[in-house]
Amino acid sequence: MKGVEAVVMGASAGGVQALLEILPYLPADYPVPVMTVLHIPADRANALVPLLRSKCEIGVKEAEDKESLAPGTVYFAPADYHLLVETDGSLALSSDEPVNFSRPSIDVLFESAADAYGAGLTGVILTGANEDGAAGLSAVTAAGGVALVEEPAAAYAQAMPQAARNACDAALALPLEGIAEHLKGLGTE
Fold it and tell me: Residue 132 catalytic?
């Protein structure tokens, strides 16, 4: 795990509960930034950031365009915007067309982060009812990064983690508590 520079996470149906099982275990001094896409309807107020902020030691915020990434912070894609990572370590927001019927799209985040971080990236696909994230997780491993998938049989919605696992032979399937432990161990080895 040495050399990890960033983590990307993606979730859809059942994702709030899954994130509540992982993010509260990350400490305030977490050594890398975490960028996250959760499929949320564009016409709904996003209560996720305040909810997680109240339960986490790690910083939690909605990503802003051209913002520089910092360790110890979870950045969430805003509703109806793709979140991308630039090669200079800053974030970009895009209102380009939906990908896999989703904006924000997990694939868009993972593919741009793989380009920016290469082998220094860890990608995590959690519960969801579509295939968004499968191509992105493949991009993470193709760039030399680490791929984690929520164990499909244990997921609230199995389609997304199963699609990611099918597309990415190198992905390690773990229950949520195993993913939390794996991520918490970043920087301690």
Answer: yes
For the question of residue 39 being annotated catalytic, the response is yes
User: How far is 127 from 148, CA to CA, in rounded Å?
Assistant: 12
The one catalytic residue in 12, 102, 105, 138 is: 12
Residue type, position 23, single letter:
L
Does the pTM of the predicted model rise above 0.85?
A: yes
What span, in angstroms and rounded, lies between the C-alpha atoms of 144 and 149?
16
- H-run or E-run covering 82: strand 82-85
Respond yes or no: is residue 94 known to be catalytic: no
**Which one of the listed residues 105, 107, 132, 138 is annotated catalytic?**
132
Whether residue 78 is predicted with pLDDT greater than 70 in this model: the reply is yes
DSSP character string of 117-161: HGGGEEEEE---SS-TTHHHHHHHHHTT-EEEEE-GGGSSS-HHH
- Find the mean pLDDT for residues 34-51: 83
